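ok so for the tutorial part 2 we go from a plain amino acid sequence to predicted structure tokens. step 1 is just haveing the sequence, like this:
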Amino acid sequence: MIKRIDHIGIVVEDVEEALRVYHQALGLPLGETQERPDFAATITFLHAGEIEIELVQPLARDSDAGRFLQRRGEGIHHICLEVDDIEQTLADLGEEGLQLIDEIPRVGPTGERFAFIHPKSAHGVLIELYEHLTSETAHDSDNQ
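step 2 — the prediction. this is what the tokens look like for a chain of 144 residues:
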């Protein structure tokens, strides 16, 4: 079940320059910055009410975000939807015939689990599904 929009990912050439708009001009409060070698990117979060804006600065031209930047320029990269049960959601979407980039969720740096739906199945939009770490999912991953 989809709970809410978790965040919107925006690929930028220079996160410091992007912060002049999103943080200084628009006044969105800064969140954390993560170095993500798994994505070859630096990601900076800003708070927009209950939704976050994720500024993604590629660190390599051949990364996903780097290729996106070369092909399309700066802009919205993905929309992330929070789900209750990522495995069940992926199974349901597979049964509906959607093309999944990830059939098995990936695990992020704080234990969160996420997966992507291919833009070809979502009218040109890359959709990320995201399950926040809960005490139950933390216990499950400790037992693996």
